[in-house]
Specification:
alpha+beta, 7-stranded mixed beta sheet, elongated, about 50% helix, 18 helices, about 750 residues
Length: about 750
């Protein structure tokens, strides 16, 4: 029980400190948030400290720069992590940004000045954040710069995980980790109670009072569980120190942020001993009140059916939501969903565990009365009279499959939130700041499927000189990759009008009108005019929504552009799959080629991608902890069963039962409740997942992608459980295992 409690408390501490890590991230961000002058009109003066914040992306990582103008004698206190605000020409950077600058010197263009300091941990949200304070003069700051009052706010500018998503995460972690964890700790306590029951009964027969026996049990249980809780918190503390060096994908933290707080320590050190005492108290009281029955191995009581009182209402709630979804009723957004769905899911999970014993006993009785097989009869009669023994073995695995179904639903919901409606993702990179080598390498970035050029007419150095149209430089094959339907009427080598069924035709792009585009010369110093006449011939397309060139007027073949020239104010539009992993890969590839380039992810927020990465990392960590707990519960229960069955197995061998018969009976005895529980977990898990998706407001109600994997895992669990039961049937007979009462 000590080792089991240590493992369980380590997992419990890991789950309970997740909110503390997220809160620490948000608190550090809020503490450095600049506060501008608000409420009344305030004209900028030379005595004001003014600032402007720029949030860019370096690959798929957010990159924040705060540009400040600090006059002499400024009384604005410095933000956390630095001793003073930088003066003109000074730059203070985060440690990771300093390392990145050494690897990518091109980033220095975004950090004008000399580096004079490094931001300390209290001024950063994590060890791998890209953050910088840049000192400038007021003349060097744009008009949008605002006077600065101080640093620090009650709320950060952006949360690492917003509240609605955090609620989903809490719900998933409860089902993935905390529910199996409670079962695991109960199994560990039950194992310890079973091993003490006969000794407590012997003490009672020797004259110890009932209260005395209960006190002996309480002291032993609390001592063992408390030692395990201390070991578990120590293991988690060491693991936090090591894991904080690497973090999780999308989430990094400092070791102090993940250390257990006083509340977490109190929960871990108190809940585990109390739970162990409550679980062991029932068995100890039975040994104290009926010592002769315990010593002589009397048959246990029939399992109670109160678990059905939890299972039936839970199934009723989630099945009702599934029925409403099948009827096409839109029930998303109702206030009752926030209460009914979690309650239904938790009642169903708890009901699966508590109702498994009476269901197994009833089914075993029916099978035993209809079979002629000796092995099956032995197994079914044992499950009939003692279903709780096998139940302890299978409970953890049943909850693991049930929680995996719920996790699949959360992943589907996150994929719906993060994935654009189209199957492609576009990236717009301005030509300004890209040399010829960088433009060529952009097309070779991993994940990029195609690329075209977009440019506007009548624009020179960002200034429009009259009516203008937008042109796309692409051939028919490139154009097809950027459209939802294959272009109709496209001909390579000719200028054509673009007609999009989703947009009204541009009145400026009438056939016969001439427009001039500005092209940069091969040496990059001059600009030449490139006239184009709008033709009558049209190509019909339907661009993805959203798209960088949705509403473009004409398409120009690349062969018509003069060799070595490129648009003076155009942009390169790249195309990839819309999967979040593909988007992050492409952004990282663009950042490696052109660190200072401004990249627009069309229709996607980089901060949103970062948040989704955090949620998925925490969810994956929860699934790993749930898997560990489920396997540990099975291992502990297998040890419990081996200890309990030694005498019965020895008696069967002594009576002449064949080893094959004993092995078959042992396997079937484990497989029956496990098969019943896993099938029930699959069905209930799919219903719970669908009810969650129906009330989530998404377009996916019935997810079939994860079902084959769950079925394969279920079959694998049955096979492993069958193999694990074989070592418990060895033929060697030890006299001390034979009942002599």
């Amino acid at each position: 029980m000590t080792l089991g409690c240590a493992a369980g408390v380590a997992c419990l501490a890991a789950v309970l400190t997740v909110p503390a890590i997220l809160d620490a991230h948000d608190a550090r961000s809020a503490a450095r948030e600049p506060r501008a002058v608000t409420g009344v009109y305030h004209a900028r003066s030379d005595e004001d400290t003014v600032f402007v914040t720029r949030r860019d992306s370096y690959g798929s990582q957010p990159f924040t720069r705060m540009l400040l103008s600090v006059p002499a004698g400024s009384r604005v206190p410095a933000p956390p992590g630095i001793d003073r605000l930088p003066g003109p020409g000074e730059v203070i950077v985060s440690p990771h940004l300093r390392e990145t600058l050494a690897e990518q010197p091109g980033l220095a263009g975004l950090l004008p000045g000399r580096i004079t300091g490094t931001i300390r941990p209290e001024g950063l949200t994590g060890p791998y954040e890209l953050y910088a304070y840049i000192g400038r003069t007021q003349a060097q700051l744009p008009d949008e710069a605002r006077p600065l009052v101080s640093f620090g706010s009650r709320w950060p500018d952006s949360l690492v995980v917003d509240e609605s998503t955090l609620d989903i995460l809490r719900f998933a972690l409860v089902c993935l980790v905390l529910l199996p964890l409670a079962v695991f700790l109960s199994v560990c306590a039950r194992l310890s109670a079973e091993s003490r029951a006969r000794r407590l009964a012997a003490l009672r027969l020797l004259g110890l009072s009932v209260k005395g026996a209960m006190r002996v049990d309480a002291v032993e249980t609390v001592a063992a569980a408390s030692l395990g809780a201390l070991l578990g918190t120590g293991v988690y503390t060491l693991a936090n120190e090591a894991l904080a060096e690497f973090g999780l994908p999308g989430l990094q933290w400092y070791p102090p942020d993940g250390r257990p707080s006083g509340t977490v320590l109190a929960v871990c050190l108190l809940v585990c001993p109390v739970l162990a005492w409550l679980v062991g108290r029932h068995r100890a009281r039975e040994a104290a009140l009926r010592p002769l029955q315990v010593r002589r191995g009397a048959l246990p009581r029939s399992p109670r059916k109160y678990g059905l009182l939890l299972l039936l209402p839970g199934l009723g709630v989630i099945s009702g939501y599934c029925a409403l979804g099948a009827l096409g009723r839109d029930i998303a957004g109702r206030s009752a969903n926030a209460l009914l769905v979690p309650v239904g899911v938790l009642l169903t999970g708890a009901g699966l565990v508590l109702a498994l014993a009476p269901i197994t006993a009833w089914l075993a009785k029916r099978l035993a009365g209809s079979t002629q097989s000796l092995s099956l009869t032995l197994a079914m009669r044992r499950n009939e009279v003692e279903p709780g023994a096998s139940l302890r073995v299978v409970t953890g695995l049943v909850l693991l499959v049930y929680a995996a179904s719920l996790a699949q639903g959360v992943l589907v919901e996150l994929a719906h939130i993060s994935k654009p409606m189209s199957s492609t993702q576009e990236y717009a990179v301005p030509f300004a700041g890209l040399d010829a080598g960088q433009r060529a390498r952009m097309h070779q970035v991993e994940g990029v499927r195609s690329g075209v050029v977009e440019m506007d007419s009548g624009i020179t150095n960002g200034v429009s000189t009259g009516p203008r149209i937008t042109a796309v430089v692409a051939d028919c094959a490139q154009l097809a990759g950027f459209t939802a339907q294959r272009p109709r009427g496209c001909a390579d080598g000719r200028v054509q009008r673009l007609v999009d069924s989703e947009y009204a035709e541009d009145s400026d792009s009438r056939p016969g009108r001439m427009y001039t585009f500005a092209l940069r010369t091969a040496d990059g110093k001059g600009v030449e005019k490139f006239p184009v006449t709008v033709p009558r011939e049209a190509v019909h397309i339907r661009a993805w929504q959203p798209s960088a060139f949705a509403g473009a007027s004409i398409v120009i073949p690349p062969s018509l552009l003069p060799a070595g020239q490129w648009p003076a104010d155009g942009q390169l539009v790249l195309l990839s799959d819309s999967a979040p992993s593909a988007v992050r890969t492409v952004l990282d590839g663009i950042g490696a080629i052109a660190p200072t380039a401004s990249v627009e992810t069309v229709g996607v927020n980089v901060e949103g991608l970062q948040q989704i990465a955090v949620v998925k990392s925490l969810l994956a960590a929860g699934m790993i902890l749930g898997l560990f707990i489920g396997v540990a519960a099975f291992a502990v229960s297998a040890v419990d069963r081996a200890m309990e069955r030694r005498g019965k197995i020895a008696a069967l061998h002594l009576l002449g039962a064949r080893p094959r018969t004993v092995r078959a009976a042992q396997c079937v005895q484990v497989l029956l409740p496990l098969a019943v529980g896993l099938v029930g977990a699959l069905v209930a898990g799919r219903l719970a997942e669908s009810s969650y998706l129906i009330t989530g407001g998404g377009t996916v109600y019935w997810d079939g992608e994860g079902l084959p994997l769950l079925v394969v895992c279920t079959v694998a669990v049955l096979a492993v459980a069958a193999l694990a039961s074989l070592p418990l049937t060895r033929r060697h007979v030890e006299l001390r295992h034979i009942r002599r009462d």
